[in-house]
Each structure stands twice: as C-alpha cells, then as structure tokens.
C-alpha cells in the first residue's frame, strides 16, 4: 500500500515512516505541513493519507482541512486522521461525510503497533477505523444537543404557534394545512422532545416550556 504521512513532529513523522515500512507499506512521502500534504497527494495519488489535525501554517485545523480537500478532490484516497485528544467539532465535521476509507485515532493508539497497523490496513482498503474514545465522546455530545434541534422546520413553526396559545384549528388555518396534519406534527414534537403521555403532566405546556427555554440567550 502506498502511503503519505503529514505530521509536524519530526520524531513522530520518522517513527510512523519506519513503523509502516516495517509493516510492508510503501511510504512515498512524509511532510510537515498541510500545504505540502496536498502537493504530495496530488503527485503520488496514494492509497492512504495519514495526517495530524493540528499542523502548520496555523497549528489549528490545517490537517483536517487538508484531509477534507483531499476527500473532495481524490475520494479514492483513504484518510486516517491522528489527534492528540478528541476534538469533537473536527471529528464531527470529518465524519459528516462518507466514512468509506476513513479513520480517526488518538495518537496514544499508535503505541499499540498491532492495532495501529490493523487500522491502517482497514482504512487503506476502504474500511473505517474510529478510536473508541472518539465514538464515546461523539455519542455523549449528541446526547447533550438541544432537543429542539431534532425538530423539522415545520415542527418548529407549529411549536412556535403553540407557544402563542393557538389551538390546533388556529394553527391549521395559519399554516393552510388540515387539522390532521397539525395533530401529526404535534405528535412528532412530543416524541422528539421526549414527552411521553402521562397522567400528571400536560405535554402541550411542557413542549412550549422547552421552546421558551430554547429562546433564552
């Protein structure tokens, strides 16, 4: 497998090169910044690109942005991103696209040579390799999301009218839809806001309270 490496730490770059060469892979280029990464991928069209997230020139998300550009221009090139720790926003951005031939590992995982080489082989062959810690934190993040984000634009519109004190009939008239359509939207709102039917709670009021909480700065 032909591989290019992008890592600004000279020692780690050399270590990765030697490790992958010992595993039988052909490291065709090893560079220290995001701009050089784009150049060598264009020149060699490797099977896999192994890149750090934070690299020159800005030491922020340069490696990730280069990886996304590579995915757009050469989708056949596998991408294995390495990071010092889980950067939720960057991981989410990367994984929002097709995960074929895509991996995101913490650098600590490199210490387990067998696991790392297996991840390289898997991603280079079109598979996926996600660090368990990455998966755990992204799942935790999804649970922290504002439940109002689950609503469709129409459902948010219906909930807004509910918050104004409109009846189902009034909402239907405002949106020029049937009463049945409004009832379906409201049912979906209750489900998405985790408001199951109970004897003691008024779900319509609770839904409106969620809406008002979401409007707070």
UniProtKB/TrEMBL annotation:
Residues 144-215 form the HTH luxR-type domain. The modification 4-aspartylphosphate is found at residue 52. The keyword Endoplasmic reticulum does not apply. Keywords: DNA-binding, Phosphoprotein, Transcription, Transcription regulation. One of its GO terms (biological process) is phosphorelay signal transduction system. Gene3D superfamilies: 3.40.50.2300. GO terms for molecular function: DNA binding. Residues 2-122 form the Response regulatory domain. Signal peptide: none annotated. InterPro entries: CheY-like_superfamily, NreC/VraR/RcsB-like_REC, Sig_transdc_resp-reg_receiver, Tscrpt_reg_LuxR_C, WalR-like. CDD domains: LuxR_C_like, REC_NarL-like. The keyword Phosphoprotein applies. This is Response regulator. It comes from Actinomarinicola tropica. The lineage of its organism: Bacteria, Bacillati, Actinomycetota, Acidimicrobiia, Acidimicrobiales.
């Amino acid at each position: 497998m032909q591989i290019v490496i992008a890592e600004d730490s000279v020692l780690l770059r050399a270590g990765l090169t030697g490790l992958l060469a010992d595993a039988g892979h052909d490291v065709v280029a090893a560079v220290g910044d995001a701009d050089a990464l784009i150049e060598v991928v264009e020149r060699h069209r490797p099977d896999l690109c192994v890149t750090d997230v934070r690299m020159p020139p800005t030491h922020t998300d340069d490696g990730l942005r280069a990886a996304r550009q590579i995915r757009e221009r050469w989708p056949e090139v596998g991408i294995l991103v390495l990071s010092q720790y889980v950067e939720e926003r960057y991981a989410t951005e990367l994984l929002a696209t097709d995960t074929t031939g895509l991996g995101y590992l913490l650098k600590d995982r490199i210490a387990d040579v067998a696991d790392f080489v297996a991840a390289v082989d898997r991603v280079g062959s079109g598979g996926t390799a996600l660090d368990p810690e990455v998966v755990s934190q992204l799942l935790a993040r999804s649970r922290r999301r504002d439940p109002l984000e689950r609503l469709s634009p129409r459902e948010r519109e219906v909930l807004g009218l509910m918050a104004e004190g409109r009846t189902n009939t009034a909402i239907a008239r405002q949106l020029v839809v049937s009463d049945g359509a409004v009832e379906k939207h409201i049912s979906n709102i209750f489900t998405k806001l985790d408001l199951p039917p109970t004897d003691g709670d008024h779900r319509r009021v609770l839904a409106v309270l969620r809406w008002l909480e979401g409007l707070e700065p």
